[in-house]
Amino acid sequence: MIRGIDHIEIIVRDVEAHVAFLQSVGFELITRTSHHGASAELKLPGDNQPIFEIHEVGGEEVIGINHIALKVDNAKAAHEDLQKKGVAFTRGPKYIGPTGRTTVELRDPDGWRFQLVDAERAAPE
């Protein structure tokens, strides 16, 4: 069911400073989206590398890791399957236009946020 880590969302004070820093240590800029106002996605070179999704702090968020997203074939199907097994979710399937994928959200026993996200990436809307 879970194929790997898709992305790790990191909330920062200054997106541009973090993009420049990550590029200086070898990350590649994949895309910029309007998700969360403005965000950037970067990854290390090579196949199957997890993505760092960087966006600026806002609202009640705090600086640091917001969530870890796990790649699944189909987030809606994974949600249905895991619900039948008793897994509790904080948000059911939701299509996210700026990323072109469906996600669901859950928390681990200590309250850390996890997402299940469609493995296939469509063009952002």
Quickly list its features.
single chain, 125 residues, alpha+beta, 2,3-Dihydroxybiphenyl 1,2-Dioxygenase, domain 1, eight-stranded mixed beta sheet, 2 helices, 8 strands, 16% helix, 45% strand, globular
Q: Characterize the biggest β-sheet.
A: 8 strands, mixed
Distance between the terminal alpha carbons, to the nearest Å? 27 Å
Weakly predicted, low-confidence segments: none
**Number of structural units classed as domains:** 1
Percentage beta strand: 35-45%
What name does CATH use for the topology?
A: 2,3-Dihydroxybiphenyl 1,2-Dioxygenase, domain 1
* CATH homologous superfamily (4th level) name: 2,3-Dihydroxybiphenyl 1,2-Dioxygenase, domain 1
CATH architecture level-2 label? Roll
Assembly state of the chains shown: single chain
Provide a brief overview of the structure.
The chain has 125 residues and is of the alpha+beta class.
Task: Describe what you observe in this structure.
The protein has one domain (2-118): Roll (2,3-Dihydroxybiphenyl 1,2-Dioxygenase, domain 1), CATH 3.10.180. The model has no long low-confidence stretch (mean pLDDT 90). The longest helix has 10 residues, at 15-24. It has 125 residues and is α+β, with helices and mostly antiparallel strands. The chain is built from two helices and eight strands, in the order βαββββαβββ. The chain has an eight-stranded mixed beta sheet, covered by helices on one side. β6 and β7 form a beta hairpin.
